[in-house]
Each structure stands twice: as C-alpha cells, then as structure tokens.
Give the backbone structure.
Amino acid sequence: MTGVWVNQIVQGILLGGLYAMFALGLSLSAGVMRFINIAHGDLIVLVCFLVLTLTTSLGLSPLVAAAITLPVVFAGGYLLQRLLLQRVLGQHVLPVILVTFGLSIIIQNALQGTYGADTRKVQGGVIEYATIHVAGEINVGVLPLVIFVSAILMVWLLDRLLYRTRIGARIRAVSDDVAAANLIGLPSPHIFALAMGFVGVTIAISAGFMSVWTNFDPTSGPSRLLIAFEAVVLGGLGSLWGTLIGGIILGVAQAVGGQFDAAWQVLAGHIVFLIIFALRPQGLFPRY
Amino acid sequence: MKPTILLGRLALIAGVIFLIAAPAFLSLRGMQLTTEFMSLLVLAMMWNLLAGYADIVTVGQHAFVGIGAYAFFGFLVLLGVDPYLSVLLAGVVSLIFAIPVMGLIFRLRAGYLAVGSWVVAETLMLAAGKLSAFGGGSGKSMPVSFVKSFGASTPDRYANVYWLAFALLAAAFLSTWYLLRSRIGVGLTAMRDDEEGAGAIGVNLRRARVLCFLWVAPFLGMAGAIITMQKLRVAPPASFSILDWTVYIIFIVVIGGVGSFEGPIIGTIVFFLIREFLNDLGVWHLIILGVISIGVILVEPKGIWGLLRRFVPGDLIPVGHKPRR
C-alpha cells in the first residue's frame, strides 16, 4: 500500500515541474515589471492551440512545432509589452490589472470562437507511453521526467540570465529603479519588452510540454494562472528556485489529494496553498 | 444649477420613478430583467467602491455572491427559516466569511491581491461542490413548497423579488452615498486620487480598506440571495459564476467609469441596452466587451462618465463638499 502513496508523491513531484514552468514566466514579469499578468494562463493555452494547429494541419512533430513557436512567442511578448502593457504601467495599479484581465477574456473567447469548446490534446507519439520501472509500484513516465528535468534546466538558465549576463544586469537595473536606469541611458521600454520576450519563451516551452501531457480547452487558462500564482507566492517573491519548490509542493498536494478521492485533486492544491500562505505569507524563500 | 447637471439629475429622478412605477405596467419578462438590472447594479456599485476608491481590485467578487446564494438556500430550505429573514441572514453569513478572507488576501497588494481573491473564490466554489446537502457538484433546485413561501403565484413572486431587489438597491445606494459623503468617504476620495498623499495627511488607509471590504460583503451576499430567489436553484458554477458576478461587473464599471458614483449606473444601463443585441454574437460579445474596456482604459480611464464629465461641470450625485467661503 505504501508503494501506491510513494508513487503518487513521485508523480506529484514530476507534475510540480510543469507547474513550476507555468510559474517561471509569471515570476519574471512580477519580479521585473512589478505586475501580475492575469492573462498569463490564457497565453499558455493560446500557444498550446498554436502547437495543435501546427501539428495537425502541417503534420509537424510537437518538438518542431514547439521550436517554431519559440521565436514567435518571444516576438509576441516583446510587442505586447512594448505596444500595450508599457502604456498602462505606472503609478496606479488598476489599469494594468484591468488590461490583462480584458486580454484574458478576449483570448479565451477568441479561442472558443476559433476552435470550439472541445477538450484537445496534442499527440506526442511513443514518448507519451514510455515508462521507466523504478522499484515496486513506482513507475516514472519518460515524458514527465523530461519535463521535470527541463524545468530545473529552465530555472538554472533563467537564474544565469538574470544574474550572470549583461542583459540580465540591465533587466535588474530597470526593475530596481526605472528613473535611475533612464538617467544612465538605459532604454527601459526596450529592456522591459525584452524581459517580456523571455517570459514568452517560458510560456512557449511550458505550453509545448503541456499540450502533449495534459488535456486543454479554451477555458483552461485561469486554472493555469492560479497554479502559477500559487507557486510564485509559495516560493517567495523573486526567488526562481523557490518557485520550483512551490510548484512541486502544489503538484504533490494535488497528487496526494487525488489519491484520496479524484474529485479532491484541485481543491487539495488550493487548500494546501492557503494553509501555507496563512502561516508564511512571505513565502518559503523570499528574496525581498 | 447648470443645465447639464439639471438634465442629468432629472434623468436620475426619472429612473427612480420608473423603478417605483414599473411593476404596474411591466410584463413578467420585463420585471425579471429589471430585477436582474437592480441586482447587477448593486454588484457594480460594490466592486466600484473597492476598486475605484479603496484600491482593492478583486477578481473574486463572485465568492460572496455564491456564499449568499448558498446561505440563503441553507436557511430557507434546510433550516426552514422565513425567506425574507433568510436574505438578511445570507448577508450576515457573507460578512462573517469576509473576515477570514480579508485576513488572508490583505497580506497581498495590487495584482497579487486580485489573483489571491480569485484563488479564494475558486476554493470556496470547489468546496461548495462538496456539500452533499446542497446537491454536491450538480447543485439543487428549490422545492416548490419553499418557492411558494415568497409568492403564492408566479406574478406575486416576481413582484416580491422585485421589491426586495429594489430595497437592496435603495439601501446600497443611500448608505454608500452617505459613506462617501462622510469623513471616511472624503478620505476614500483622497485615496482614489493619491494614495501616498492621503496617507500623508492622516487618512488611515488600512482602516478605510477594512471598512470597505466589510461594507461590501453583506450587500454581495444579499444580492446573491435575491438572485437565487430568481433562479430557484443553487449550483457551484452558477451561484459562484465568475462570468456573471465578476467579469461582467468589471466590464460594466470600467466602461461606465471607475471611481465615480455615476459610473456603475451608466455602465449597467449601457450593458443592459447592448446585451440583447450582443447576445446574438455568441463568444464575440465578450471579445467586444473586452476590447471596449481595454480601449476605455487606454483612451479615457474614467469611462463614459469621465467623457461626459468634460461637459458636465459637477457630480450628478454630489459626493464631495463645497468648501465654505
């Protein structure tokens, strides 16, 4: 019996990798641009549908399709920030919340109008069914394992990008003090837009994996946003590694809750989040 | 009085006379629509008080509407309480829930608070689906005997629910007006215009926020109860509908004009006028509403009322005070 539970926890940890991926982009935009993008989940789902279209209509493999979306979504993120979000960022918090909220509703309904309300999934081929037998009742799927390792790799790369590169230093500079950054000649709108482009890259990668691993429909966005938000808050604002841990906690909570009763899966994740948040509002590894 | 203000106030008075006289001549369908209009207007006024004045932008307003709906159903059907008392008690339950919810989400600010309130609403909706006495995930209809307790015949019931909604709207309107004209309201208006400045001249920001949050909760709960009297059933996704009680409400307030007393009224009227037409467009009606509200924020963040206010020299519903000479 314990084997079943251990297996559930292992599956939960792997699921947490995907959740951490969702959360990385949100963490970056919250940490750098200082706003919460309410359309974050819907952007992920939008890219999932993009991958779906590329694989079904052009017959591309999901990997190639996801690779094609990368530069597209990077450019999309750059333009979204430069043309729309940058205009409403400022003293008041209301405009940017309302604009991203409006964007979220537009994306959901545009997808529904284009693709219908059906639940979809991208066919991933052999890798979907390949599993590795670890021990006893513990089996690990190859795809979840690849996703989990990719999540760790993404956290590491993003951390390097922010703290070890020139562009990272610039991003941190405009994030800390826009006025001072402008004063020393940094083009802050361009740098913010680049940061949003990197957010777009995390969105594209997580969407590529999500489209193969889980079902999605045009209204799946908000649940992805809530998961990403919970992982960011649990991990502690500004801490990328904390976000990874936050995602894993949520994944394990859902997997264990789902083992008790399938109907409790999502609720268990929210309840665990609210309890930890009530006890430790600053998150587990707050950076600031 | 300037002619534009006079015109606006006359329109407002005409609206009140219409609402009082309406039951005498409206069809049942018209009564139902007007009742819904009044409930939505209460929700819009409450969201505006939080987002427009107290700087608490929630995306989880539907939580309290849902709590009100379930509490009303519980008192009336499960405990056999008088239906009108049940409406009041639904407001009380909503207020009680608001205290721990506030304790949680007030640790967050701005966008974090917005999504945090959504997490709480989602959790409460999923939890409501686990209540077997309320029909679990699929919900439960109100037995006919209880439906008859607030109106023996269908026209009677429509009229009773209509006057309840009217009373709630009147209470929400007058008390919120009084609140905004009080010392606390002057502080809230200062917060709306400049939060740091308001804090610097001695407005207790935290106390004002707490008061607003607790002010709003019972009204949302009672609106949820009245909505349930119209729908005659509770179900998690319908009673806690984010689309109906939060998304539409945000569009209404943004388009009408956030941070003004007139904005939600204009927004709700506009919403009802264009809804019949937009409904034929399927998913496109939400896309259009979304595009309009983003446009409003980019062009005139104070909405239709902000646009009109350029030609109208003062408030139609005066919430400020003229300085003494």
Observations:
- The mean pLDDT of chain A is 90.
- The longest strand of chain A covers residues 131-135.
